[in-house]
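Run folding on both entries below.
>entry_1
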Amino acid sequence: MNPTDVLNEIAAQVRRCEDCQLHFSRKLAVPGEGPSNSELMFIGEGPGFHENEQGRPFVGQAGKFLDELLEVAGFQRQQVFIANVVKCRPPGNRDPLPEELAACSSYLDRQIEAINPSVIVTLGRFSMAKYLPSARISDVHGKTFWVHERLIVPMFHPAAALHQPSLKNLVIQDFRKLPEAIQTAKTARAKMITSMKRTSSEDPKAEEKTEDAPEQLSLF
C-alpha cells in the first residue's frame, strides 16, 4: 500500500474511532492533512472549536497565524503535513488526558511512518512531550534534536503566541530557521543511509546489530 493510501485508511479509522471518551463530544474528528511525501510535518495538541466543526487542523485564528509563519519559512500549507496528538476536540479546549493521548498515539505513529518527514515540528508542550518528555519548552524552543533518527524542532504553539504577544517574535524567529533545519536533516539522513549501506556490505549482520542498539537523543 502506498503512503497516500495508508494515510487515507488512517483518516477513515480516525473518523469512526471510539477508543476514548472524546468521541462522545466530538462533531468531526480531525485526522490531519497534507501531502504524503512532505519533508516537514507539524504536530499540534488537539482540535479546537473550528477544527471540530470542519474536520481540518488549524483552521481558526491559530491556523491563520500558522499560515503566516509558514510563509516566513518559505512554505505554503499544501506543502506540509499537519496533525495533532489527539484527533478529537477535548471539551472546552482542556488539556488532553493521558488515556486520550495513548488512544491516538498509534494513529499518529502510523502517519509519521507513512510520511517519513525529514523534520517534525512540535507545536506546544503536549506534542513536544512525545519526543522530549522532560524538557521545558521555554528552554528548547527553536532548537533541533535528533530523536529516533529524525530531526525534531519543538516550538511554542501559535495560539500561545496570540495570547502572549511577547512570544510572537520568538516564534517568527524559530520558523525562519526551518529551511536550514530541513537541509541539515536531509544531509544527515543521506550520510546515515550511505553509512548503513557501506556497513551492511562489509558485515551482513550489521543491520541486526543496528536494530538492537539503543536509541539516543542528542542536540544537533
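>entry_2
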Amino acid sequence: MEIVALNQISPDQVILWTWKFITLNVTILYTWLVMAILVFISWLATRNLSSEMNVSRWQHFLEVIISVVRGEISEMTKKGADNFVPLIGTLFLFICTSNILVIVPGFIAPTSSITTTAALASCVFIAVPYYGISRNGVLHYLKEYFQPNFIFFPFHVMGEISRTLALTVRLFGNIMSHEKVVGILLAVTPLLFPIIMQALGLLIGVIQAYIFAILSMVYIASALSADEEGHAHAHTKKEG
C-alpha cells in the first residue's frame, strides 16, 4: 500500500492501494462511494412506489427532483423532454452529491479530479450525436457537419471538441480551486471564516452541478434544433 499526502493538486495522486497493474486512488474510491449512495437512495425511493396521494418522503423527494429536471429540460427543447431526463438528471445528481459531501471530514470530491470531469464531459460528447442520430438518422446528422459547405467541417469538429474541453475545465477548476482555498484558510485563519467559506462552497457546488447539467442540455438541444431546421429546409426545398 502506498499513501500519498492529501495536499496534492488532484485526488488522482492520492494512492490508497496498488497491486500489480491495479491502482486504487481517492478519486475511484469516492466516485464509487457517491454512486453507491445514489443507488441506495434510489432504492429507498422506489421500493414502495405508489400512485396514491400518500407517498413516502423518499418518493416525494425523488418526484420533486424529476419534476424540476423535466421542467428545465422542457424550456430548452420543444418535445421529448422525458428522453433526456435520465442523462441530465444523473449528471446533476452525481455532481451535486459529490460536491455536497465535501462537508464530511476526509471526503474529497471526485469532481475535483480532471479525470472525473473529463469522463462526465465525454458522456455529453457522446450523447450529442447519439440523440441527433436517434431523432434524424445517421446521414442527416453527419450532413450537418458539412453545412453550409464542406469547408466548415473542421470548424464543426473543433466546436464539438472545444465544448467538451470547456465542460471539463469549468467544473474541475471551480471545485478544485475552492477545496484548495478552504484548505489554506483552515491552516492560516481562525475556525469561523473557513466555516463560512465551506457553506459558500456548498452553494457553489450545487450551482456548478446545475450549470453543468444545463450546458449539457443546451448542447444537445442546439444539435437537435440544427438537425430539425436542416431537415425541414431540405424537405421544403424538395417540395419546391
